[in-house]
Amino acid sequence: MIWLHFLSALALRRNMSNLKLLSEVSLPQSHQAPEIYVQNWTNLAMPSRMRVDHRTLTPSYGRFTIEPLEQGYAVTLGHSLRKTLHASMNGSAIVAVKIDGVKKPTDDVVGIQGGLMNLLLNLKEVEIIHQEEGIIELDLTIAPGGQLFGSDLSTNGEIKVRNPSKQIVQLEEGVSLQMKLYINLGLGYITAEENEKLKLPRGTLYLDSYHSPIREIRYEVENARVDQRTDYDRLIFEIWTSGTISPQDSLARAARVLKKQLGLFIHFDENISAIPMHRQVSDEPM
Q1: CATH superfamily of domain region 40-89+214-265
Q2: What is the pLDDT of residues 155-180, one digit of tens each?
Q3: Residue 81 backbone zone (phi > 0: left; psi -120 to 50: alpha; other: beta)
Q4: According to the CATH classification, is domain 91-210 in 2.170.120.12?
């Protein structure tokens, strides 16, 4: 047993000695990475202007032209902005409704022209303008034979409706209706199943809700000229919104989101023109 301990100690001493020798061996000069200049973007073409087509500009439509861009950059920017606009713009929408005497969407409700399903579909198409968090409850009473329009939802001044002339329901003579609408702030498209997580009172009918104010986005790429070169990119970007946010503001917000997301990858001072990198470079393939 004493002999085994002696051999183990001797082996350990040899291993420590080998590690010390390895630590003192310096790599050949060819394995030292050269000084890397990190501001290699200074030679890239940068967009010098963004033109807005004021002839076609409306509260819900905008056409923007960005140039010049390096080859391939227009597609990269256009695709990134498009994805970000669809995914990051929030807004309010009607997420649920509670109607007296109705327990489920398939109930046969007498006195509603077009039926209950038509009422629920019309509620989904009402465009709400409201940017504060928290559920808003609207109690509505419709007189016998009366109608309900989008403008009737904004009478208390708490919310605004983008399409006030939208007809929500028409009742037949002698039939009245009481219901409560639930409005909530959200992001993108939310299914009725997801809205059920709000845990509203029993008997509430949950709706699929679309919260994004972005309706459509298109972009195309053309050639742009800088001095004698004609192989730069020009990005033409078109945005259609619901009107609850302007195309200029939506584009600015998307750009800010991208800037915040990409800032995570910058791990050096951008004001420094060069950073010496003394890391070891392996000859083995990655």
Answers
A1: RNA polymerase, RBP11-like subunit (3.30.1360.10)
A2: 777 889 989 999 999 999 999 999 99
A3: alpha
A4: yes
